[in-house]
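The passage that follows is intended for readers who have already worked through the single-chain material. We present the inputs for a multi-component assembly, then the predicted structure in tokenized form, and finally a short commentary. You are encouraged to pause after the input and sketch how you expect the pieces to fit together before reading on.
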Amino acid sequence: MAESRTSSVSVGNPVKPGTLVRVALRLLWRDWRGGELRLLLLAMIMAVTSVSGIALFTDRLERALLQESANMLAADRVMSTREPPPRELLTEAQSMGLATAEYIAFASMAFSDQDNLLVSVKAVSDAYPLRGSLQVADQVFGAPYVSGQGGPSRGEVWVESRVFSGLDIDVGDNVYVGESEFTVTRVLVLEPDRQQGGMMDNAGPRLLMHLDDVPETNVIQAGSRASYRYLFAGDQRALDAYTSWVRNQYDGLYRLRDVRDESAEVSEALSRGESFLMLGSLFAVLLAGVAIALTARRYSERHFDYAAILKTLGCTSNQISVIYFCILFVLLVLAVAVGSALGWLLHEGILRMLRSVIPIDLPSASGMPFVVGALTALICLFAFALPPLLALKHTSPLRVLRKDIGDAPLSTALPYVFGIVGGLSLILWYSQDLLITGILVAGVLSVAAVLSVLSYVLLRSGTAAGMRAGSAWMLAMSAVRRRRRQSVLQVLVFSLTIMCLLTLGLLRTDLIADWQAQLPENTPNHFLMNINNDQLDGMQNYFDRNNLQANPFYPMMSAGLLQVNGAPAPLPWDNDRPGAPSSVTERSAGEPEPGLGAEAAADSVGEGEMPRRVENRQVTYTGQLPPDNEIVAGSWWANDNRPNEVSVELDYAQRLGLQLGDELVFRLGQDEVTVNVTSFRTVRWDNMQPNFFFIFSPGTLEFIGATYLSTLLLEGEQKMLLNDLLRQYPTIVVLEVDALIEQIQTIIAQVSSAVELIAVLVLVAGALVLLSCVNATLDERFRENAILRTLGAGRKLIMSSLLIEFAFIGMLAGVIATLGAEVSVYYLQVEVFQQEFFPHYWVWFAGPVAGTLIIAGLGVGATRRVVNTSPLAVLRHLSG
Amino acid sequence: MASMVEARHLSKRVSTSEGELVILNDINLSIAAAETVAIVGASGSGKSTLLGLMAGLDGASGGDMLLDGHNLSTMDEEQRAQLRGQSVGFVFQSFQLLPSLTALENVMLPIELKNDRNARQKAAQLLQRVGLESRVTHYPNQLSGGEQQRVAIARAFASEAKILFADEPTGNLDTTTGAKVIDLLFSLNKEYGTTLVLVTHDDRLAQRCRRIIRLVAGEITEDSAIAEDSITGEAVHG
Ligand SMILES: Nc1ncnc2c1ncn2[C@@H]1O[C@H](COP(=O)(O)OP(=O)(O)OP(=O)(O)O)[C@@H](O)[C@H]1O
Ligand SMILES: [Mg+2]
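Having made your guess, compare it with the prediction:
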């Protein structure tokens, strides 16, 4: 008998990695040919395809929308002031690599040999516009084309069509502005940033001239009202660097603004669209993740025997890990390659489909969507596929002798922990939003909780009912009960899938409906301002005569809040905060100039005291609550006689820290008024209607002279009436916001078509989950049904029991999904999109019915083979 | 002669819901190289468990188990796996071929795991040796049970193992097929000079081994060598 050698002695050459890779590739190839891996790879490709496809699409769409909104500024950032800002601001920007342009806007009279007209002059530098383009025509109502050169050359002006009729001139005639003479060379059809700027910038039809011609006109002198704008464009990093340089250098005196600061209306439409697209792709990825988890689990279950046999042949646990890691890696590479290519095709297909709705040329995509797709695949793989496959290394080789050994590893918590962590990080990564993540997680958890109770109850009662019904029912119910854990899992997966689909469907309908409600067909597209008290009747007559639908006249005046309960009023928005809502009213009033935040006037309150900043706001008084305003606290005066009261917009009141009953002192011109806060209102800033932070009760401000504001809808030819109106009432100011409204509507149309498409993608991902879920039980079904058939059960009986089983599970999933979807939609709408929620009764019918039909159809479709294969073939296949 | 397998006071206990169950108790045996040994006993007597312990598929609860001079009880699963790859071959009642690999690939696998470049050639030769040269590209589910077991035998010898463990290799086969498979096993065994440990409750099969170890309720009750001349007639393999 030999002495035992110490076990540390090497027992032979270790297996080379190359050999393991070869074995792995061989297994992979066979499994692929045998169809084992197809569904797993398909699920991964689906994840990559939908993510990279959607990411490509949204990336390009977002760039397009950003570009378009940059067009609305004619730049990426603007800075505007009342005084000429230091040149250093421009030179520094140039040295940081930014493109710059500038213009001055002012109101002036323009003269021709025949007539005169108040025009709003815009004198632009050569580089204007930095973003977007000027559209011009060679004659009035001629075909518009894009001006190749930017603005007009020196000595020339381009004017809007209304100027031609107003001054009774033609292209080639001369006009006079101040002391200079100009030749009209083109018709100005569209400037990208037409609606930007204050009232005086837009006080009449546009006349565009060269910046260098301004001094000779002698129109701008000390004290004249002009607005100066510097425009900047460049890449994000340079913009950020410049922004912080300005902030440090000028301590809030000058501020760069982007389109979101400039227009609440556009930024709302954009950010809602983005949230929605993000949510859609998130759903698609999560569904694909579930499919991956299911197929990977099935794959690894089938490979327990492999692992055990490999171990008896001398593979160590680590080598088995290497083998399966190789397989996963190859799958990952394949999925990323194929998925990215398909994603590209997908987004190209989408764009082709939407060519008619997305008229703008999309900028080309960045590489980011592909990175996002690959990363998603990686996360999905690690979270959903790796744990079950790594469990293989723990398979006991003893399994070759005793079958019952080695099933244990999958029941450990690890795959669930991985799955949950992976899912959470995906949600968080995509939404970048804790709230949405929380809502989704809560949704899933509550579905799971409801599910366990419901499935218990329903599975039991269903089973009991089955006892009384025919034998197909009995078979089906005992199948459901036998596979109880799988049945619950299936119901969970199906209901989550259907829930995602329903949520998306409901949100989409509501969002689009809401957007359409936001800017209804007859939204007024012109603001009339600076109307005197004694012009009111005449104007109303004019509107009636010309069949124009005018809205109420709001008295408007500028008021500064001096005191709150005897103490000096705080400033609600400090200069670094771009959060102030900016409605058409506030912007058009021209007073709070965007570049300086709300107008902060140095104001000496008394001798010896320090000057103090007071914020002036446009205010009004009315007995009638304006449309889209809602009282949320206190009471509206309606037609009661309650002078000296004020109603404050809710956000503004919160920033000022106001309470109902507070006593406020306002200064209006030379007068001071004291009022009590009696209500708070919410206001829709994006409805393109006059909106006010402060509304006073009738009987408070009447003694102070006010000008009036109204809105008007002018379409097509009606626009020419403006000249006529302005001739009769030369002092009024008209603000044309039709271009802005058109822009918003374009964005809405684009976003909603994108949204529809994403719903389709989620549907495909959902179907994939359903398929892999059914497939997960296929082996067992094959075996069972082969045995049943050898025992004499007919095809018909087995078919109908399958049908009943899937229909039952589908109905259960449908009910739970409907519940979950309504809850999620409620939270998403109320918390994320800040909309109202209405229950959707039709869903309560459609959800369960769709669940039943879809699951029964898919399930029976996928298990048809089970019945149609001969029992012998089945038993033979399974024993091999 | 150096012993290939040696058990010293080997025992195996498992805890079940009804308390501790002793499957094997104080097993002592030594098997020399090139010996052929049959382990017989009633169903449930612990034959498969003993085989698993001897082959290092499982760890013992007490005592020492030596395989080819290595003390299995001091080795971890990784080392035992390496030892298996190097020195041990298996034939199982349920064949245990990898269903997604062809017959040829199944036989190639252990050769490949030894980093042998001539895997394909060697595997093809072995398949020819077991009479399956026409079935090399077939998958296990395309083969009959006897054919599958012949592939399994070819695989077992492919790794050039020093010792072969077989757990009821004919258990799933009819008598005639079983006899053919056994002939094959013994003739290959003779060619390669392998140590063979065979679990069976087929007495005729047991009679073909040089030594019979009988298990009753986890204990060895008989360990008898059989005289050379009394070994039942070995059919000459064609
Ligand atoms: N892990 C385990 N847990 C519980 N009981 C076990 C375990 N392993 C083996 N046994 C029991 O130990 C006894 C011996 O099992 P073993 O498989 O070794 O028997 P066997 O002699 O091979 O029987 P057969 O001839 O039927 O294959 C059996 O009663 C078996 O149920
Ligand atoms: Mg046994």
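Commentary: The mean pLDDT of chain A is 75. The pocket of magnesium ion (ligand 2) is lined by residues B 47-48 (CB under 6 Å). How closely did your sketch match?
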